[in-house]
Amino acid sequence: MTDTETKKALLIDEAEKLLPLVIEIMPGHAAEGLVDIYEPGSYEAKSLRKLCQRTLNKKNLTIEEQLIAEDVDRQLDGGKLLCRGQEIDGTALEFAISEQTEAGEKYFYVPIRAIKPQEGGDD
Amino acid sequence: MRQVLNSEMELLVASDFIYLPLLLDPEIEKETQTLLQPEKQLEKLKNPVSNTIIKHDDKYFVKAFRIPSFLDNYQAINPYSYKRLRNDCLKKYQLEREVDDILLSETLRTILFQIMPYFIKKNKGLKRNKFNDEHILDLVHEKVEIPARYFEAAKTFQNLGPLKEILKDLEDQKPVFKLPENGLYSGQQLRDWLYQAVQAKVLASEHHRIAEALQVREQFNLAKPEHIATLLYIADSGALEVDGFGFTLSNAYYKGEYLIYKRTGDYILKDYYARSYLFPDCRVAVSTCTPFRPFVMEKYKHPFLLAHKAGQEICMKNFAPSNELTAQNVIRMLEEGLTAMHYGYDGRKRNGYHSLDKMWVHIPTIDFEDYRI
Q1: N or C: which end of chain A has fewer CB within 10 A?
Q2: Left (φ > 0), alpha (ψ -120 to 50) or beta: where does A85 sit?
Q3: Considering the entire predicted model, what is its pTM?
């Protein structure tokens, strides 16, 4: 599924299940980002933006995570958080897709990119 | 000469000369008798080099050419064969200039170990672990199918023994080849000897290169064979692509320079009326030589590209290209290009060179109707 694809991949039967939520905030076009896991029941009532804020405010980051966080901050200096090309207004479940670990455990996944705009058109 | 050396004809080697069998007809026989007269024989003893015709096992042989001269001039006599022998020899010991140069290339190391890790998925789980150069090579080895011959080449590359031996012989100033002893040889025997002698001379002429190659290989001697195979594969192909990120050697004009790219994947842009247009995948690239500006490698059209052709720079706002080639700068330039392509166009503003929806003006512009979904 591409970033800008607007189709929601959430399956109805899975929406009814209680699954953990994984949010990944990637700086720019990086392949990997900051990952945060929310247990079922802890994220449903909150907006995605709020969850992202909480992830970005985490303190106990490893050195590798700190480097990613710095890249995210750089992008957010004048930039914004996007999920599949859209601004993240709404709940996490509106953007989530269902994935599973190698061990077969299911979870909801929301990939978010911190993008500094480049409008183009004016060289 | 080639025909003689490829034949089964018996040739005589005497005093560093090659003698060809003498065909006898009455005229030649007469001449032979004159040359072999007793007074001529005496002269021959005084000056053995003048032996034009000699007799061996009741057969006459005529002097053809001096072996060392033939060897010294082989490059001019048969340039094609010399080049082939030289290449085979350098390949056998992996002494082609490109391999060592590429393995030591600072640009390639920057791309592989500093730029690529940003754009490829390194971790399988949710943890973000520290990755070093070896991990990156492991990852490339996992994700790219490396042909078996590079693993064989890696073994040769890491076997320093033969090169050390050649270098030692050269430094001890031992003769690089031994001339064949006097006697009868078939053409093919002499040809095999000649090829070996040419290759020995090639190695002698590459003395410095062997010394340099040994230094490089000693650096890589403790590396895993699959890492060497991966590096040799990259050195040979000059290109690599993992997870949509890749690089390729630029054309011959910019020797040793690379194009570093990231694929956009398919993406959707919307026009003034919120209608969707599906844009196909393309590679947004930055060259390692100036100008450091992102461009699209393929023939492509987009509101931020002036025409519908290959190699167009992406038109960007407030973009100050850096003059220094560093990993951070390349990542930034690629990202700006990708962001412009993915998210830069605003249907309401119709920014860029072209509008996605037709504006009905009399200015020729690019049409995007075929991308409408």
Answers
A1: N
A2: left
A3: 0.72
Structural contact between residues A85 and B343, judged by C-beta atoms closer than 8 angstroms: yes
CA distance B286 to B254: 13
Do B66 and B94 lie in one domain? The reply is no
- Which amino acid, B327? A
CB contact under 8 A, A121 and B262: no
Q: Which of B128, B338, B346 sits opposite A32 (nearest CB)?
A: B128
Same domain membership, residue B33 and residue B88:
no
Give B216 or A23, the one with higher predicted confidence.
A23
Which range of residues forms the domain containing residue B326? 250-371
Q: Are residues B90 and B175 both part of a single domain?
A: yes
* Whether B219 and B103 share a structural domain: yes
Residue numbers in B near A120 (CB within 8 A): 303-304, 314-317, 340, 344-345, 351-352
Q: What is the pLDDT of residues A50-73, one digit of tens each?
A: 999 999 998 888 888 899 999 999
Which positions in chain B touch A65 (Cβ < 8 Å)? 128
ipTM for the predicted complex comes to 0.82
The answer to whether the Cβ–Cβ distance between A64 and B130 falls below 8 Å is yes
> Is residue B244 included in any domain, yes or no?
no
Residue B209: Cβ within 10 Å count: 16
Does residue B245 form part of some domain?
A: no
Contact B117, B136 (CB under 8 A): yes
Residues B352, A121: C-beta atoms closer than 8 Å: yes
Q: Give yes or no: residues B264 and B206 share one domain.
A: no
Residues of A in contact with B120 (CB under 8 A): 31
Tokens 């670990």 identify what position?
A: A101
Is residue B31 in a domain? yes
Q: Scanning every residue of chain A, which has its alpha carbon at the shortest distance from the alpha carbon of B245?
A: A31
Q: B118 lies in a domain?
A: yes
Q: CB distance B343–A85 less than 8 Å?
A: yes
pLDDT reported for residue A12: 44
Angle, CA B179 vertex, CA B174 and CA B181 arms, to 5°: 130
With an 8 Å Cβ cutoff, is B316 touching chain A?
yes
Number of structural domains, chain B?
3
**Which residues lie across from A24 on neighbouring strands?**
A35, A111
Q: Which residues of B touch A63 (CB under 8 A)?
A: 130
> Is the dihedral angle over the CA atoms B204, B209, B215, B216 positive or is it negative?
negative
SS (H, E, C) chain A: CCCCCCCCCCCHHHHHCCCCEEEEEEECCCCCCEEEEECCCCCCCCEHHHHHHHHHCCCCCCHHHHHHHHHHHHHHCCCEEEECCEECCCEHHHCCEEEECCCCCEEEEEEEEEECCCCCCCC
